[in-house]
Specification:
The chain is an alpha+beta fold and 657 residues long. It contains 11 helices and 37 strands.
């Protein structure tokens, strides 16, 4: 391959290695520096004024065909929260001795201070490289003097030997984008297949070029005044619907040579992985240090053997918070250091299961928070994680050994995508991943109405089963079981809690049971003082119809939806409140009994109030039986959620005679 390229592209290498477009930094219009808020999105924390990338190719005698991408960004900072756009993490991929390079990295920050433009330049001390694992480095950049009002300019060149993929370019972000442009100059002998997403209007132009007598195809994509994408907690990731384009190589057609196809099948990928030193070969090899644990496992029955080996990996090895679908340093390093990536831990688990006689195989997945895996276009560039698939006498089991809080029968949310690719030696098959997690909870309140203090007080007892128990244990251990890797979501939740209207309620833990047994329901008993759910006016007592357990917001506000609603698990939530009401009070009015359901038994909501023998009983249940609701059923889900929201605004009214 290198010889063929060398014969045809020696001239191309000279030309394209010299023609990086020079973008001078620091010439910022005064009106942009003076701008206090974005003109069309006043609450924007920042805005992309200009973002552009140009992709070119050249041939290197040693490295072969190289893809060069020249990036330029101009970002206006409006609010303190927007300062994070001054911190960059530029990934550097490494594979089979080839490594990407970041070159000519420059940044200038312009601020308006006392009417004068003050410029701050990026220095070497602001840049460092983190070695994540054998296949990835991160060039981290902390641009200085970034503050509200500043305009950041960044440019750099990325040289990549991995020309088979042109990384995805997004025309849309969580902040407004005034102008976004992607230009690709591809030699005509390279045939790429575009993969697009999103709904933003993008202008597309293309033309044929001749560079030093060699034919090229140029593509230009431009988007203007793009509104920010809205965060949506009910998708795998907004990137699936965020406007962008990515190119995967399909084939190379050299003059006088047969076409070389790069568009591989999953079976082709499986065969390559079978011979990969960091994937297939580590599963086949024998490791003396692991023989005692394998021999011990062989003495157990199937179910106990699986549990024994799963617990061994979870308890004896620590996940280093990095993801991979291959081993990063090999099993020997993992055994010695007791720490590794998701690929290290889960391939070790699969190895142990296979050697002990269990039918276990790798299931390649794309992390949930990275979006949908496009199984129709086979490519390992979309794969970033691996879990264990077991075929047992009791059916399929999926295991992910990263976290010791997850029992058999559950998965970390991040491991659950719609599809994965199951690798069985040299063959592959698309495998539909059924979400095994059920967030099941039952909460019973035994309360008294304290007329003197106008509060409800008593006992709250929760039975947290399946994934609800896992979430509780994770919170108790200060670990987010649903999405550890999404730090921003945790920060958002903290902000929401600050505004929670029920924060004055007091719940003091009395006891919890089964916290150390992940296979049992967690039982949590608390002393409860609920001060925000009742109000007395004259002879009338108003009790909030759902106390504090209702849904205070309908999160489905859009009138239509073009893509499914994804829940992180199925839901089975039951709340029962029994309130002792003092003598002399009678029920005057209460919300009517409700029973609302989604089509095809996808979920339901029920609500009922009863009053007898001075006991006020409230029954509130909510179920979602599927983790994905189709766009066709979105309006039904929106209506159901609206019913749940409206009931929280109603009151139960009692009158004292």
């Amino acid at each position: 391959m290198k010889i063929i390229h060398r014969l045809i592209y020696f001239i191309l290498s000279i030309l394209l290695s010299l023609n990086a477009a020079s973008q001078k930094l620091g010439n910022i219009p005064m009106d942009l520096l003076q701008q206090k808020n974005h003109p069309t999105v006043p609450d924007a924390i920042a805005a992309h004024i200009n973002q552009s990338a140009e992709v070119k190719f050249f041939f290197d005698d040693v490295k072969g065909l190289i893809m060069d991408t020249y990036y330029y960004y101009q970002i206006k900072i409006y609010k303190e929260e927007g300062e994070k756009y001054g911190d960059l993490e530029l990934p550097i991929r490494i594979s089979q001795g080839n490594e990407e390079k970041i070159r000519n990295l420059k940044a200038v920050v312009s601020n308006l201070e006392n009417g004068e433009v003050v410029k701050t330049t990026l220095e070497k001390k602001d840049i460092f490289v983190e070695e994540v694992h054998n296949y990835l480095k991160l060039k981290k950049v902390a641009i200085p003097n970034v503050k509200p009002g500043a305009v950041i300019e960044i440019k750099y060149q990325k040289e990549s030997p991995f020309y088979y993929t042109i990384p995805k370019w997004y025309f849309q972000d969580y902040i407004p984008t005034e102008y976004s442009k992607l230009k690709i100059n591809a030699p005509k002998f390279i045939n790429y297949t575009p993969i697009t997403s999103g709904f933003v209007d993008v202008d597309i132009s293309q033309k044929e070029l001749s560079i030093n007598g060699l034919p090229h195809q140029q593509y230009i994509f431009e988007a203007r005044q793009t509104q920010p994408i809205v965060k949506d907690e009910f998708v795998l990731h907004e990137n699936d619907y965020r406007s962008g384009i990515k190119y995967e190589i399909h084939s190379i057609e050299l003059p006088g040579r047969p076409t070389e196809n790069y568009s591989k099948s999953w079976n082709d990928i499986a065969e390559n992985l079978y011979y990969d030193e960091s994937f297939g070969k580590v599963l086949i090899k024998n490791y003396k240090d692991l023989e005692p644990i394998i021999n011990q496992a062989k003495l157990l029955e199937e179910k106990e053997r699986i549990s024994f080996l799963y617990d061994y990996v979870k308890e004896d090895f620590t996940w280093n918070k990095y993801y991979s679908y291959r081993t990063t340093k090999g099993f020997k390093s993992l055994i010695n250091n007791k720490s590794g990536s998701s690929g290290d831990l889960n391939l070790l688990l699969i190895h142990l299961l296979q050697k002990s006689g269990i039918n276990a195989n790798p299931l390649l997945v794309k992390l949930r928070h990275r979006g949908l895996l496009n199984v129709a276009f086979p490519s390992v560039t979309e794969i970033n994680h691996v879990i264990a698939h077991l075929s047992t006498s009791e059916g399929d089991i999926l295991l992910d050994s990263r976290i010791d809080l997850i029992p058999i029968g559950q998965l970390m949310t991040s491991s659950i995508n719609i599809n994965g690719v199951l690798i069985k030696e040299k063959t592959a098959e698309i495998y539909m991943i059924n979400n095994p997690n059920n967030n099941k909870s039952q909460t019973i309140y035994q309360l008294d109405y304290n007329e003197e203090e106008n509060i409800l007080e008593g006992i709250e007892q929760q039975r947290l089963s399946d994934f609800a128990g896992t979430i509780y244990r994770a919170q108790d251990a200060n670990y987010d079981a649903e999405e550890e890797e999404e730090k921003e979501k945790e920060e958002e939740n903290e902000e929401e809690q600050k505004e929670d209207i029920h924060l004055n309620n007091q719940f003091t833990l009395i006891e919890n049971k089964n916290l150390d047994d992940i296979n049992k329901s967690a039982i949590v008993k608390s002393d409860a003082k609920i001060v925000t759910s009742c109000k007395k006016i004259g002879s009338k007592l108003f009790i909030k119809a759902t106390l504090h357990f209702g849904h205070e917001e309908n999160k489905f506000k859009a009138e239509k939806r073009n893509y499914p609603v994804f829940f992180s698990s199925t839901i089975d939530e039951k709340n029962i409140a029994i309130i002792n009401i003092p003598d002399g009070y009678q029920l005057e009015s209460a919300p009517k009994k409700i029973l609302a359901a989604l089509p095809n038994n996808q979920g339901n909501f029920s609500y009922e109030v009863k009053f007898a023998d001075q006991k006020l009983s409230i029954y509130h249940t909510y179920k979602i039986n599927q983790d994905m609701i189709s766009p066709e059923d979105y309006l039904a889900l929106k209506e159901l959620s609206d019913i749940m929201f409206k009931i929280t605004k109603e009151n139960i009214v009692l009158t004292k005679e």
